[in-house]
Design a protein that fits this description.
The protein is built from twelve helices and 17 strands. It is α+β, with helices and mostly antiparallel strands. It has a single domain, classed as 4-Layer Sandwich (Chorismate synthase, AroC fold), CATH 3.60.150.
């Protein structure tokens, strides 16, 4: 593992912190670029009020000097603006028993079905499941998007681009196939639509469904697609189970809150068709010694390695566990049936999950590049990738 990262912080704590180790030296970093991705994470019809409250302004603490990476670990911090309303509740210092007035605790005793509340409380022996909620919250993905932007910048220097779109919200699906010529501009196209779908008419249908869900106090899940373009052939490996690239991709996407399924290429559809319909045939290339393929059913990975075609990842996100019309649950201290805890939440976060997915894929692919090509500085790595891409 050449590239690794850690995050820390709670949803209503003082700040979110992230450390990324392994970036080469000489990579140009602009705070404005990180902020642009953080702003895109807030996109999507049906997001909650927290998105308006937080400006998600990132501070660079280490690893970058005068706009360029040093090769040492990069540390980032994003302060939670809502901390001012939660200081007493989330303070790290012991509470004073003589506090006047007493500090409200916002104790969570009735877990939400489908959330980490109950199991985390049992595992870590918390009688207040807010100790679980605060770290299990999707707010943590804010700092992962910031770290992912650093990986994205590295990939951009190698002409590798990552885009995404929403393909389904609830039962409504956008079945349009994006023309290959439009893929590099896909983010610019879908970011103009409220649910980040490619087809405007489908976007309108989804908004109507979201409004209905909000009226009913419901939440909605969906499916999103993340695509990487211009990847070198041969990232990953077949020689050991833990070096197959799709394994790293699946782990990264399944680590995202509420994700319950990941597929690459045709994915689960491949289990329904004949072999002649499932595989991508080889044809000779007149312009390059390597063969070509006219289809991409494998989604850009065969045998654990990239094929050089677009890498296509789809993920299924379940409806969020916080319902405004809450489900039945149990108050753990009394063992009595009560309605589940209600925390500020979204109707759907699928558009945001797609943007987060871009960052997760960027982190995986940046590590795969470093694993294959090595090197400590950006010029060194760029030269090696260029030589590989031009070799027979």
């Amino acid at each position: 593992m050449r590239l690794r990262y850690l995050t820390a912080g709670e949803s209503h704590g003082r700040a979110l912190v992230g450390i990324l180790e392994g970036l080469p030296s000489g990579l140009s970093i602009e705070v404005a670029s990180i902020h642009a991705d953080l702003k895109r994470r807030k996109l999507g019809y049906g997001r909650g009020s927290r998105q308006k409250m937080e400006d998600d302004s990132v501070q660079i603490l280490s690893g970058i000097r005068q706009g360029y990476t040093l090769g040492s670990p990069v540390a980032l911090m994003i302060e939670n603006k809502d901390w001012k309303n939660w200081t007493g509740i989330m303070q790290p210092e012991p509470l004073s028993t003589s506090a006047e007035p007493p500090v409200p605790q916002r104790k969570l005793e009735v877990p939400r079905p489908g959330h980490a509340d109950y199991l985390g409380g049992i595992k870590y022996r918390h009688d207040d499941m807010r100790n679980v909620l605060e770290r299990a919250s999707a707010r943590e993905t804010t700092i992962r998007v910031a770290l992912g932007n650093l990986a994205r910048r590295f990939l951009e220097e190698l002409n590798i681009q990552i885009v995404s779109r929403v393909v389904q919200i609830g039962p409504i699906e956008d079945t349009a196939v994006v023309p290959a010529a439009q893929l590099p501009n896909l983010n610019k196209i879908v970011d103009l639509h409220q649910l980040r779908v490619y087809t405007k008419s489908v976007d309108i249908e989804m908004i109507t469904l979201m409004d209905e869900a909000k009226r009913r106090g419901e939440t909605l899940g969906g499916i999103f697609e993340v695509i990487a373009l211009n990847l070198p052939l041969g990232l990953g490996s077949y020689v050991h189970w833990d070096r197959r690239l799709e394994g790293d991709i699946a782990q990264a996407f399944m680590s995202l809150n509420a994700i319950k399924g990941v597929e690459i290429g045709l994915g689960f559809e491949l289990g329904k068709i004949f072999g002649s319909e499932a595989h991508d045939e080889y044809f000779p290339s007149k312009q390059h010694a390597r063969v070509t393929q006219t289809t991409n059913r494998s989604g850009g990975i065969d045998g654990g390695m990239t094929t050089g075609q677009p890498l296509v990842v789809r993920s299924a996100m379940k409806p969020l566990a916080t319902l405004m019309t809450p489900l039945n649950s149990v108050k753990v201290s009394t063992d009595q049936i009560e309605k589940a805890h209600v925390e500020r939440s979204d109707v759907s976060a699928v558009p945001a999950a797609a943007v987060i997915g871009e960052s997760l894929l960027a982190l995986v692919l940046a590590n795969a590049i470093l694993d294959k090509f090595g090197g400590d500085s950006l010029p060194e790595i760029k030269a090696r990738v260029l030589a590989w891409n031009q070799s027979p």
